[in-house]
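Troubleshooting entry. Yesterday's outputs looked truncated, so today I'm pasting the complete records for two proteins to confirm everything comes through intact. If either block looks cut off, that's the bug. Protein one:
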Amino acid sequence: MRRKKQTLETLCSCLIAIIVSAANLHAADPIFVSMVQLLANPAKFDGVDVIVVGYCSLYIPAKNEVGAHGSDVLYLHREDSTAELTKNGVALRITPELFLKPDDYNGRYVIIKGTFDAKNLGFKEMYCGTIRNIQEVTPWVLGSPDKPKK
């Protein structure tokens, strides 16, 4: 009986350790990654909080436009947006609060902090993943350091 109790206590301790470790994985600081890393290895960053720099292309419907669908995308390069090379981009799940002034971000390089989702390939599965739970968007300034300061 005593041995069963010890085994049960050991199993409970192991389970608690696993749960705490898993919780700490998601509580970690965001990882700064390049768009190249994200596009080449989307599964590696699935569910990871990332900071990434790319060219922001926002879909802004015309005032009289009804029923149209577009995508908000972070591309590797401006030329990828122009040529609509969708596999060189990741979809963005934009919250209205973050983009009160879309002209501050649309058509510019930006730094985005959010959670990468490799399974969600965006509108018609055209992209290499999605950045969701976006916490911060900052226009990229030429000459900015590669790694944003905390």
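Protein two, checking that the full record survives here as well:
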Amino acid sequence: MRGDPTRTQPQRRANTAKDASKAQPTERARRVRFKDKSVLVTGGSQGIGASVAEGFAAEGAEVAVVASTDRTKAQAVVDHIQDAGGLAKAFVCDVAKISDIEVLITDVLAAFGRIDVLVNCAGVFYPTRIGETDQAMFDRMCDINLRGTFFTCNAVAPHMIARGSGKIINFGSTAASIGRSDYIVYSATKAGVEHMTRAIAVALAPHGINVNAISPGATATPMNEEIRTRPEFASHVAALAARTPSKQVYADPRDIAGAALFLASDEARAMYGAILVMDQGMMAGY
């Protein structure tokens, strides 16, 4: 399929960096870890998803960067990847809609010929307090966080089964394991994702497919920018700091992306149904 001149090729921008041949050998080795691999990242237009997409592209993969509705946001990530000499293409998919997911998988396969790695980063959060939560908020989080993750896995699985290999990485949250009065529905959806990851891992392991999840704690993303920066939330941030052994309250999205690259690599080939916690030590205790 890769030699088929009829399929749409992801575009590579001219690399304006100095001669790559002058790079250190260790850097060259790192950048080809995912050479000839195709990676699909939902929620890839911002936050952790954008860092994941950029990380895979930096190590040689061609990346499908998926935004929920605004293609220009995905294209901005694609442009950044291409400016660095990588391969990427922008897509749009509302994972709350099963029909959108089916179209996305068809389009990515048409563009890249295969999907070696699926990373389900798409997710939303709204505060949901008991007695104050409406059905629309409940449904939206369930539809994207839980149903969207399942049906994207469901759509990709037959392709990976046919090829006898693949990597699927889902995103849970430490909120799945901690009761918070304003995270009720979000916590439930992420707990569902984590347990679903284990069950799908059992189903797909015989086919040579690794399915695992990352459980991030507080991470610096556009979703929580107001909480991190506005004075009225200072007490909340201070409370998080008191419970964070590393004292870095918000992790860098690139650190979370590093975990995704590890789970997609050969180094993690013995991992099935693992939930990798990345939370600056919060779940370890304080």
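Both blocks look complete. Sanity check on protein two: The longest strand covers residues 209-216.
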